Amino acid sequence: MTERKYKADDYKSDFRPTWCPGCGNFAQWRAIRAALAELEIPPENVVLASGIGCSSHMPNFLNVYGMQTVHGRGIPVATGVRLANPKLTVLVYGGDGDIYGIGGNHFLHACRRNVDIITIVSNNFIYGLTTGQASPTSPVGTLTKTTPRGSIENPLNPVSLAISAGATFVARGFSGDAKHLQYIFKEAIQHRGFAFVDVFSPCITFNKNQTFDFFRARIYKIEETEHDKEDFHAALDLANQRFVRDHLPIGIFYQIENKTTYEERDFALNQGYIPAHEELGLSDEQIEIITKEFY
Length: 295
Ligand SMILES: Cc1ncc(C[n+]2csc(CCOP(=O)(O)OP(=O)(O)O)c2C)c(N)n1
Ligand code: SF4
Description:
By secondary structure, the protein is of the alpha/beta class. The chain has one domain (about 20-290): 3-Layer(aba) Sandwich (Rossmann fold), CATH 3.40.50.970. Helices cover about 30% and strands about 15% of the residues. It has helices at about 25-40, 75-85, 95-100, 105-115, 160-165, 180-190, 210-215, 230-240, 260-265, 285-290, and strands at about 45-50, 65-70, 90-95, 120-125, 125, 135, 170-175, 195-200, 220, 250-255. The protein has an eight-stranded mixed sheet with strand order 2-1-3-4-8-7-10-9, sandwiched between helices. A two-stranded antiparallel ribbon has the order 5-6. Iron/sulfur cluster binds next to loops.
């Protein structure tokens, strides 16, 4: 057996995760590292951007370039990084409040632009960091601090939205199945174009409804069915089954490779131009001052 170039632990930072023991984010942290190791992507070629939330603390716990940005702004920052240097593997990680709520606009436009980045959403159906308020995915009737008589809003269906908006890789995972998550993340990272993964990821502290047991009783794997992931209408039909509450598919809903990416359509990038390789015309001292601002 040939030895792998990297181990999952090579992508681990010196900081221990601060999530509550048992939080769904742990499985995703492990699966991201395992997928990167399996694909042998050097840590220095990976950038992960996030916003604000428990899940958005992820860059602190990975030994890759990372940036925790403003609430909901992981996607535009990641887009900028990728367009500045298309040689990098660029990921976004955040919560349902962060990416579907305050950052919803960015999510929509990233899907239609088909920029070659990977967006992973740790969907716990509430705001975790701020101690449990309703989020865009909270089902009608959910009791939270902001909805004491039950949420009256219809929830968003992110998988269905991403397919309709033009994402070329759309999948769903579950934090209770780390091996399956690793497989999905690996496929998402290898995909050419905008890859989106919604992850059922229980908040064990503030959400007593969408628990690990809740999902275990309802999920099934798309790979074990006859689903054709290249069929747009079949993918949308399957995505809308989220509302059939006893059957929740996980796996790859939709994937097409025959659509050009934003980078391939850009008049400079498609000629091999890499903006990040431009001389900045700054002195070493000026660069040091700017760099220090990010520490
Ligand atoms: C502009 C702005 N508005 C509101 C907040 C407060 N805030 C911090 S995190 C958060 C939502 C977190 O929920 P989610 O994105 O689902 O992540 P989780 O903590 O559940 O992982 C909110 C509303 C903020 N930090 N900045
Ligand atoms: S509050 Fe919820 S989402 Fe946040 S770390 Fe704890 S279990 Fe995870």
